[in-house]
Amino acid sequence: xxxxxxxxxxxxxxxxxxxxxxxxxxxxxxxxxxxxxxxxxxxxxxxxxxxxxxxxxxxxxxxxxxxxxxxxxxxxxxxxxxxxxxxxxxxxxxxxxxxxxxxxxxxxxxxxxxxxxxxxxxxxxxxxxxxxxxxxxxxxxxxxxxxxxxxxxxxxxxxxxxxxxxxxxxxxxxxxxxxxxxxxxxxxxxxxxxxxxxxxxxxxxxxxxxxxxxxxxxxxxxxxxxxxxxxxxxxxxxxxxxxxxxx
Length: 247
What we know:
Elements: H1 8-26, H2 33-36, H3 39-68, H4 82-104, H5 112-131, H6 135-141, H7 144-159, H8 166-196, H9 202-230
């Protein structure tokens, strides 16, 4: 099938424009006073609102896909469902939107790690989107969005200066549990799968290389999360406040 006749381009474009429209709508919502006073925090807040919406939808959607097509847990390369395929297209559209948002917002330098992550994620998703293989693997990677719901709440509370709120203290423990269940565990499972088949599939080797780089990034983020929330005396100083990550 030629690229012009493939259903993926209009799906990707539709998803990307949907997130762009969502961002414009969310920008109309009132801002916390601590956020409103700082243009950088305002941009972050709007960016995180879109990320939060994506995490809720795609996280629940990924769980439903696995429930409806449980063979995705085993047949990572060949398992396929229309719902799973649309989910991968939907999330790829989000990553395209967020990449553009970061660049247009002038946050390329502060958010370069996010850009690297997005490029790798899109590279992996496109294998499922255009070659219809590893759609199950794409769905499993999107289980991470369940964890991102709580991670995004944490980040939004931090930039709105609400770290002393009781909900922040509750969320940091929930976030830690979800990080293990829906980020570290699926990533370890997928890495083990691809390591077993690394010599048998060219595309699998390509995806493994992406997965290993994502493994490194996830472990770095995890160390930052632990340091910031549970060892605050070792957290970075305020000179790094412009860094758009999980500090």
